[in-house]
């Protein structure tokens, strides 16, 4: 076999492989098939927007009756004078004027309020 015929044959195979490689290219600008597009592109609602999903037509919903906030167990006392005294003895003021609360409040005011309201709160 003559060497130039082998070179032409190999060149044709190379061109065929390049053609087969470039012809069926995937267009990456097109998205793939999406089976549940309503899940991928779900409509989001702001808290006070009307919402057709709920019976009330509102997005923000009232908590279920009897719901207790996490970490706050209600104190069971009677609704008479004796129950009020008992509740007064059991309950603690979460905003007591201890040094930690006052220092934290001052730091929060300096961080978030002072730039607009000034040191006297007149801004």
Can you describe this structure?
- The chain has 4 helices and no strands.
- It has helices at residues 3-22, 37-40, 81-90, 99-117.
Distance between the termini: 97 Å
Strand content: under 5%
Mean pLDDT: 82
Output the number of helix runs: 4
Determine the oligomeric state from the structure. single chain
Task: Write down the secondary-structure element order.
Answer: HHHH
- Helix/strand-derived category reads mainly alpha
Structural Rg: 36 Å
**Spans where pLDDT lies below 50 across 5 or more residues:** none
User: What general form does the structure show?
Assistant: elongated
Helix percent band: 40-55%
Number of strands: 0
- Main sheet, how many strands, which sense, barrel? none
Task: Please give the structural blueprint.
Blueprint: H1 3-22, H2 37-40, H3 81-90, H4 99-117
Overview in brief:
With 123 residues, the chain is mainly α. It contains four helices and no strands.
Task: Supply database-style keywords.
single chain, mainly alpha, 43% helix
């Amino acid at each position: 076999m003559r060497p130039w015929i082998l070179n032409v044959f190999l060149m044709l195979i190379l061109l065929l492989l390049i053609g087969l490689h470039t012809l069926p290219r995937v267009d990456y600008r097109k998205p793939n098939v999406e089976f549940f597009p309503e899940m991928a592109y779900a409509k989001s609602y702001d808290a006070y927007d009307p919402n057709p999903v709920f019976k009330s037509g509102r997005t923000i919903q009232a908590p279920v009756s009897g719901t207790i906030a996490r970490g706050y167990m209600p104190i069971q006392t009677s609704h008479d004078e004796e129950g009020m005294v008992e509740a007064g003895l059991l309950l603690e003021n979460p905003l007591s004027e201890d040094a930690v609360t006052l220092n934290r409040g001052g730091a929060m005011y300096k961080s978030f309020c002072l730039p607009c309201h000034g040191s006297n709160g007149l801004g």
